[in-house]
Amino acid sequence: MRPQATGGNYSWPHEVTDRRYPGFPIAEVAADGSSVITKHPNTGGIVSVGTVTAQLLYEIAEPAYPNPDVVAHFDTITLTQQQPDRVRVSDVRGSAPPDTAKVAMNYVGGYRNTMTFVLTGLDIEDKAAWTEGLLFDILGGKDTFAETDVRLMRFDTDDAPTNEQATAHLRITVKDPDARKVGRAFSGAVMEVILAGPAGLHTTTSPTAESAYGVYWPALIPADLIEQRVVLPDGTTRTTGRAEHAPVTSRPLPTPDPATMAEWAPTRTVPLGRICGARSGDKGGNANVGVWVRTDTAYAWLRDHLTVDRLRALIPEASPLTVRRHELPNLRALNFVLVGLLGEGVAASVRPDPQAKGLGEYLRSRHVPIPVTVLEEDAPPSWQEDDHDVWSHRRDQSSRPPRNPTLEPGQRRRSV
């Protein structure tokens, strides 16, 4: 567990009233398997049901989370805010582990190079097509490379008040097993295009040499091939016995019925993030996006509304992909796995955000029709609206003496 559990990468910044570096998260583990998540006293950040929920949704797939010795069922977790910066995690159920274990290998997949051209002012799309055509004409065509990726990123605005606001980025990546194709040959072609291309054309960086990239390859092997050992403080080791294996299963849940949406009228079209938090990340070549809300009413709407088809509409990149949807009603959350969004893994991905860290916040920014009843029940104030109060709270909090939480009977403290 990292500072994300204590306010880092958290969707609702107005809740993080102490903006110092987040304290390192601590799990006080009790004999019954429950725990309390807290942090070191007099440190920044926050520990809340929201921050712990966000971390539970980070880089997971189905709610049945397999480990070598047990399957943890995330759809049985109960989170309770005991005190400020203290969240109890209880009622977690487990089952026997699967008869397979995950092993991952990384190997060199080839070489790559990327250049970002800056297009300025009018006729952006025409300038982008001209630049792309010139570059690949010089290089002998796109078929010269094992893989190419071209992305036009529109940051420009009409009648922009500054030069920067009149620009768009054309990001071109080439990949190939032959380093020479994507090295100096590519860099030299970039320089030629800058001199011969559209007016105002320039780049964000100087041309660079090729770089090797890795491919992440996960696989499953029979668990019986693995011997688990425990290293004790005195340096001795013990071999642990294997638990009884069983297939990983999740509880079947009914499919949302689109007909129930009629019950949610009237609606107001606002960003999804008005009521939802999100956490996203990478899982090999897949990306996951977990979204959660804070009330039962909001979850009932979210569960009905945010189907796989609607997610694909909100995240167009997901349109051609397999998308898996998982429900965690105990956390008032949904988790989506976008299969193959990151290609062969983070190191090989050509996305500007290769780890999908911003995918959840992008989803939150999309406008959807949300029932007025849901908005009125739980619409978190925006950072701008709460700016004065937050800063006042932060100053008050920084003057407080550090709190030293005590352990409950049967608990021990460990950093995680």
Topology overview:
Layout: E1 25-30, E2 35-39, H1 49-56, E3 64-66, E4 71-73, E5 78-83, E6 86-90, E7 93-95, E8 100-120, H2 124-139, E9 147-153, E10 167-176, H3 179-182, H4 184-196, E11 202-203, E12 211-222, E13 229-231, E14 237-239, E15 267-271, E16 277-283, E17 286-292, H5 296-305, H6 308-314, E18 323-328, E19 333-338, H7 359-365, E20 367-371, H8 372-377, H9 387-398, E21 411-415
Antiparallel strand pairs: 1-2, 1-21, 2-6, 3-4, 4-7, 5-6, 8-10, 8-11, 8-12, 9-10, 13-14, 15-20, 16-17, 17-19, 18-19
Radius of gyration over C-alpha positions, nearest whole angstrom? 25 Å
Shape field: globular
Structural class by helix and strand composition: alpha+beta
Q: Runs with pLDDT <50, length 5+?
A: 381-416
Task: State the share of residues found in helices, binned by percent.
Answer: 10-25%
The side-by-side strand order for the widest beta sheet comes to: 5-6-2-1-21
Question: How do the SSEs run, as a string of H and E?
Answer: EEHEEEEEEHEEHHEEEEEEEHHEEHEHHE
On the 0 to 100 scale, the average pLDDT is 88
Major beta sheet, specifics? 5 strands, antiparallel
What amount of the residues lies in strands? Answer: 25-35%
Number of strands: 21
- How many domains? The number is 3
Report how far the terminal alpha carbons are from each other: 5 Å
Number of discrete helical segments:
9
Describe this structure in words.
- With 416 residues, the chain is an alpha+beta fold.
- 20% of the residues lie in helices and 31% in strands.
- It has 3 domains: 3-98, no CATH class; 105-215, Alpha-Beta Plaits, CATH 3.30.70; 258-377, no CATH class.
- It has helices spanning 49-56, 124-139, 179-182, 184-196, 296-305, 308-314, 359-365, 372-377, 387-398; strands at 25-30, 35-39, 64-66, 71-73, 78-83, 86-90, 93-95, 100-120, 147-153, 167-176, 202-203, 211-222, 229-231, 237-239, 267-271, 277-283, 286-292, 323-328, 333-338, 367-371, 411-415.
- Helix 2 crosses helix 4 (184-196).
- The radius of gyration is 25 Å and the shape is globular.
